[in-house]
């Protein structure tokens, strides 16, 4: 089964993506990258837009609303080795949608079409989009957007079938993924609430999607991509590798934050995990965070 890691802002940076790939994940996607910040040379955005050679193939996901700015950002990413460009049409954050970006593109099919056309012309690498089911319950238009995208030459479509109003609540209505699969002939990637292999198989059977994208189910569990259960020793090796990659590749302040976040997720299910999590977030150095975690493992 083609299992892919979902883009998650603040989480799916190079170290986490690489451990997911090493565990068996297919095509990787960067976290969302603000197209304008990239074009304007924002230092932090350059860090987010960086990948390790071993991560390839990797797609970079762009967030934006201006077709020309998006196209320029896509050209730059393609020139520096992106194996694909993905357009974010799902971000529900108020200050993002207020700028006409992310999920706001779902409620403006005409502007979305112009963006698809402009981005399609800008790059030769695969160009994909990641959509929600619609803006809200009254405007569920994933099928309409998918048809427009296919007509404009988009290569694949990932569907997270919640509306912007649902954010991440309730169960993801997989039936909408099936409707998109039936409506277009480009590959459709199904996403939403996959927590294990049984869920992934069920999603493929229920919708006919070509691949499954996993987000929250991979947090603290990159071995979800392995295709089979992994023992405790293997899990420990993966966590050690993840910590080493974080320390090697991220600036010290980011490394500390990422170690805390990911080790907190890895602690799920350990005895006293709630207390451990609180302690992890209070630790002041990478060494202290790791010592605390392994002392409770
Ligand atoms: C912390 C977090 C950050 C996210 N950031 C992004 C993002 O940058 N781009 C995007 O398209 N989706 C983003 N998403 C949505 C996920 O990619 C995915 O569509 C959603 O979590 C549903 O899948 P899941 O049930 O497997 O988690 C984010 C989700 C979470 C939880």
Give a written overview of the molecule.
The structure is a single chain. This protein starts with a strand and ends with a helix. Helices cover 46% and strands 15% of the residues. The chain is built from 13 helices and eight strands. Strands 1-8-7-6-5-4-3-2 form an eight-stranded parallel beta sheet. The protein has two domains: 3-226, Aldolase class I (TIM Barrel), CATH 3.20.20; 232-296. The radius of gyration is 19 Å and the shape is globular. With 297 residues, it is of the alpha/beta class. The structure holds flavin mononucleotide.
At a glance:
The protein is of the alpha/beta class. It has 2 domains: 3-226, Aldolase class I (TIM Barrel, Alpha-Beta Barrel), CATH 3.20.20; 232-296.
CATH superfamily of the largest domain: Aldolase class I
* Structural class by sheet pairing and helices: alpha/beta
Order of helices and strands: EHEHHEHEHHEHEHEHEHHHH
Number of alpha- plus pi-helical segments: 13
Bound molecules: flavin mononucleotide
Tally of DSSP β-strands: 8
Q: How many independent structural domains?
A: 2
**Strand line-up in the sheet with most strands:** 1-8-7-6-5-4-3-2
CATH-derived architecture of the largest domain: Alpha-Beta Barrel
List the helices and strands and how they pair.
Blueprint: E1 3-5, H1 14-23, E2 28-34, H2 35-39, H3 43-48, E3 58-63, H4 67-79, E4 84-89, H5 94-97, H6 109-122, E5 127-134, H7 142-151, E6 156-163, H8 175-183, E7 188-191, H9 197-207, E8 211-214, H10 232-249, H11 252-266, H12 273-282, H13 286-296
Parallel strand pairs: 1-8, 2-3, 3-4, 4-5, 5-6, 6-7, 7-8
Helix pairs in contact: 1-10, 4-6, 6-7, 7-8, 10-11, 11-12, 11-13, 12-13
Flavin mononucleotide binds next to β2.
């Amino acid at each position: 089964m083609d299992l892919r890691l979902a883009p998650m802002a603040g989480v799916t940076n190079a170290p986490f993506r690489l451990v997911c790939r090493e565990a068996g994940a297919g095509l990787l996607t960067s976290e969302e990258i603000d197209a304008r910040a990239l074009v304007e040379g924002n230092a932090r955005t350059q860090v987010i837009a960086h990948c390790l050679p071993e991560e390839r193939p990797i797609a970079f996901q762009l967030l934006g609303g201006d077709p020309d700015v998006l196209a320029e950002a896509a050209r730059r990413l393609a020139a520096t080795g992106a194996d694909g460009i993905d357009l974010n049409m799902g971000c529900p954050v108020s200050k993002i949608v207020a700028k006409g970006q992310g999920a706001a593109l779902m409620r403006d099919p005409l502007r979305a079409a112009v963006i698809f056309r402009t981005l399609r012309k800008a790059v030769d690498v695969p160009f994909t989009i990641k959509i929600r089911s619609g803006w809200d319950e009254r405007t569920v238009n994933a099928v309409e957007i998918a048809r427009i995208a296919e007509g404009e030459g988009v290569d694949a479509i990932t569907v997270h079938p919640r509306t912007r109003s649902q954010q991440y609540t309730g169960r993801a209505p997989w039936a909408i993924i099936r409707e998109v699969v039936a409506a277009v002939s480009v590959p459709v990637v199904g996403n939403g609430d996959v927590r294990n292999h049984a869920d992934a198989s069920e999603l493929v059977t229920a919708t006919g999607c070509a691949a499954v994208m996993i987000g929250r189910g991979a947090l603290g569990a990159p071995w979800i991509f392995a295709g089979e259960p992994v023992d405790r020793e293997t899990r420990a090796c993966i966590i050690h590798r993840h910590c080493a990659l974080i320390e090697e590749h991220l600036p010290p302040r980011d490394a500390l934050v990422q170690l805390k976040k990911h080790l907190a997720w890895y602690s799920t299910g350990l005895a006293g995990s709630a207390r451990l999590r609180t302690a992890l977030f209070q630790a002041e150095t990478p060494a202290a965070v790791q010592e605390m975690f392994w002392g409770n493992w």
